[in-house]
Amino acid sequence: MTTSNFKNKNHIDELRNIVRSNLNEYINGDYVLLDIPNYRNIGDTLIWQGELEYLKEFKYKCNYSCNPHVFKSDKIKKSDIILLQGGGNFGDIWPINQDFRNMIISNYRNNKIIVFPQTIHYKNVSNIIKDAKIYNEHPNLIICVRDQPSFELAQKYFHKCKILLLPDMAFFNDFTRFHSNRIQGKSLIMAREDREMGKDSSINQIKKELEKECRNFDIKDWPGFLKEGTLKRRVQSYIIRAEIIGSKKLMNVPLLNLLVDDKHGLKRRDYKNSQLMKGIEFINKYDVIYSTRLHGFILSVLLNKEVYIFDNSYGKNKNFYKAWLSNFENVKLIEAYDY
After folding, report:
1. Polysaccharide pyruvyl transferase domain: from which residue to which, for each copy (predicted)?
2. For residues 245-274, b (16+ Cβ closer than 10 Å) or e, as one string?
3. 127-131, 152-156, 221-225, 319-323: least confident range
4. Which one of 75, 113, 122, 138 is separated from 226 by 20 to 30 angstroms, measured CA to CA?
């Protein structure tokens, strides 16, 4: 497929230019990239790869990069700009990432710190007040957010920080080589299996419509995701926890520390690339995507699919769509009142 058939190429270029025109001036030296995803969420891996593609546009060097479990404080130089992974884990829903972010911002006040675009969500206002104290004490902290409610929340509580409203970094990925004209004759309802799953009844309505039209469809989450509370998910969690504990212990043991990769821990060194290909191959099995996952939605846009998005449990998907994607072709937000 040629780029002339890429429906939203110009819109995606516009999003990239918004990032460049607002963020480039702050990345003016060598840097470290921290909090990268060492887990099975393909969406966060898409963000990470997008950040890497963006950073290729600079002449500066990445001095260090790691996941939060194997962080080495002696790797940070006083001159390094600290870049923190973007995504949807800013707040009190995903504590591992938030605690790591807070530790870095608290301990490295002499370094410029940039948080790549995030959605901010707190269930408990006391937690954002506590975090705000840490952030407002940092003299050079730039927090990028990716929707209007997050922007307003950050301006209200993180008033001494520089707040930028920017699109998601996953849009820096160029997947045109994976576009396909082949008709699969199948649709996907991508229903997430974790704590961010919303209670919107529209998914059931879509399912009924597809059944009524005798259309072939699957209901699945990302490859490798298992439903919370199931035995398989518990076993998977034990394996993940063992890998994390093993990484932490071995990273300080001479010779054995060679087994631990700063980015991937004890996983294969090509884990990132294999995750990306899993996601691309998964989405390319379908012609039409109905997604509850923001990055299932974004990857589908990057792969030139017809795509619909449902909201998650706290407005992340809807707010992102309204901020950046309402003028995209073959892309639509499905809200409860649509059915």
Report:
1. 41-314
2. ebbeebbeeeeeeeebbbbbbbbeeebbee
3. 221-225
4. 122
